[in-house]
Task: structure prediction
Amino acid sequence: MAHLLQHTAVIAFAGLMAVAAFEDFRRLIIPNAVPIALCALWPLYFAGAPSLYGGLGAFGCALIVFLAGALCFSRGWLGGGDVKLLAVSTLWAGPAQTPALLAATGVLGGALALFLLMPPAAHFATLARAKLGPALEAPGEGLAAPIPYGIAIAGAAVLVIVLPQFS
Result:
């Protein structure tokens, strides 16, 4: 029964990550409801293999990532939604998978940034956002152009958290 709950929670996690990635691409905003829902689903996931060490470790890793992300947010390096999404993803990853999650997020985020800095890709992103819905902030030019980092976070979370559950 706990295994079924855990798989259901992981499938919901993947769906919510897809919503976060889409909304971040579309509006450059990750709705607060997504990290809240992910926090609410985490106990179902955790119930599959509960342990005091695992739970405290997951909370500790998530807190450290949140505090580091808050510092990045205060400097304008990350958006608030990205910080919340990365912290809750770390909660799900736990201490054992947090390094892999952070490394995959960095690699995917760097690749996404390089891709979106190419003029054709930046033009495509601008056109797609215009068709999908208006951004709440105007995109900048060159290196100041916003990067929907939620896409990288969601991709890394699916690679590190979801795929191992079904392999």
Q: What stands out?
A: The chain has one domain: 2-165.
